[in-house]
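just leaving the lab so this will be short. below you get a single protein, a line of residues and a line of whole numbers that encode the local backbone shape. id like you to explain what the token line says about the fold, in plain words if possible. thanks a lot i owe you, the record is right below:

…
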Amino acid sequence: MALCDLPQLTLLLLPLLARLSAGDCPCSEAALCQPIRHRPDFEVFVFDVGQKTWKSYDWSQITTVAAFGKYDPELMCYAHSKGARVVLKGDVSLKNIIDPTFRASWIAQKVTFDVAWSPKRIDKRCYNYTGIADACDFLFVMSYDEQSQIWSECIAAANAPYNQTLTGYIDYIKMGISPKKLVMGVPWYGYDYICLNLSKDDICSIAKVPFRGAPCSDAAGHQVPYKVIMKQVNGSVSGSQWDKDQQAPYYNYKDPAGHFHQVWYDNPQSISLKAAYVKNYGLRGIGMWNANCLDYSDDALAREQTQEMWGALKPRL
């Protein structure tokens, strides 16, 4: 998943902006149809994949919403009323990328680029990261799916192990990229793996599913949103456990067919550790894939769990 939001925004929003400038503003106030010019010192970059859950987001934190669902004018109006940008995904032709008029107009906008959790050829991403960083306002580092290429034992592991995650940022900074050019992306989902064998030490052996040269990968499992995990964990055979090495929670459960599963995920505890790194090392901000993974219902417990996840984004020393 990658997003260079300004070229995509330009492609998809030019017809929209033309209508808005012609007076076809869907907002209650015409001013809400104007682009957000404020550039915050600290970014909270939120990915939204559709529906109406955005109405329950913590807008006291959000600076940018990247909308991956169908364009929702109500979302734009509401986000602008809170001082937050809305950007859309899309494709942009090479012709437009090199067009001087487009390039000049983008200077006044926000240009970002999504990169892997590490610059070390993850999933064969061989990019000129320093050049991209120089050309963008910041890089959104996708610090998740870190088991996409497993070169060691084929066992279930954390989606975003703490030390491994931080190593990625250290490597980006060593390349000469300023911490102020890096926004940390954290996962609000986990991975559910079927265990071919589950040892007494909770080592879950998984099927060998190769990916881009690696013998094993997280493709042996499937992604599970945090709201589903929270409904399942208390009824699991193990309850929530904490791995001290990976600084991440997991649990084991047995399916109706009698197979053991191991689920690795991030929770407020693991995310708070990463948010503290963001603060301590002066990163540009934090964000997540994706905000729709939480339970925004009126259930009291779900509401508390959702508030805790949003709260974990606030860096603590």
